[in-house]
Write a structure and sequence with these properties.
The protein has 141 residues and is an alpha+beta fold. The chain is 18% helix and 30% strand. It has helices at residues 9-27, 79-84; strands at 40-50, 57-63, 69-75, 97-104, 111-118, 124-125. The protein has a five-stranded mixed beta barrel.
Length: 141
């Protein structure tokens, strides 16, 4: 009687790899919940930067039209991507003023997907994805 290929060392490795890939695929989510047809830009106060995988979250306080303040959760890239684009877990501190630009949630909840964050010193930080193309060179360069 011949053994199934899944019982061979090669079959076990293939099965383990397939399970790992499936877990990664399930852990990552779609971005369909964000309204990519609208961008909001708001002055905010940092509550905290949640430096976690698979995505970091910037929690900020944003004033509403009625004079109240509401906590917003803004999603960024994973720590590794953020680090490569200049972020660190200590980049922003609670109480600091920032300006956030983000895609809001379609359902109107107080959350969004970061497009950019302007820090108190004027630096502009992106969402942690791959950097865009380099600026075009002018004829005078």
């Amino acid at each position: 009687m011949q053994r199934s290929s899944w019982h061979s060392p090669r079959g076990v490795v293939i099965a383990a790899a397939a399970l790992m890939i499936a877990q990664v695929a399930l852990a990552h989510h779609s971005f369909v919940m964000f309204d990519r047809t609208r961008q909001l830009s708001r002055r905010a106060t940092v509550k905290e930067l949640e430096w976690t995988n698979p995505h970091c979250w910037l929690h900020v306080w944003i004033a509403d039209d009625r004079g109240g303040v509401r906590e917003w959760r803004l999603e960024a890239g994973p720590p590794g991507m953020l680090t490569r684009t200049g972020w660190s877990s200590h980049l922003v501190k609670p109480g600091e003023p920032v300006t956030v630009t983000f895609y809001p949630m379609k359902d109107g909840s107080a959350a969004g997907d970061i497009i950019k964050v302007v820090l108190p010193d004027g630096r502009v930080m992106g969402p942690g994805g791959a950097p865009g193309p380099p600026p075009a060179k002018s004829a005078h360069n």
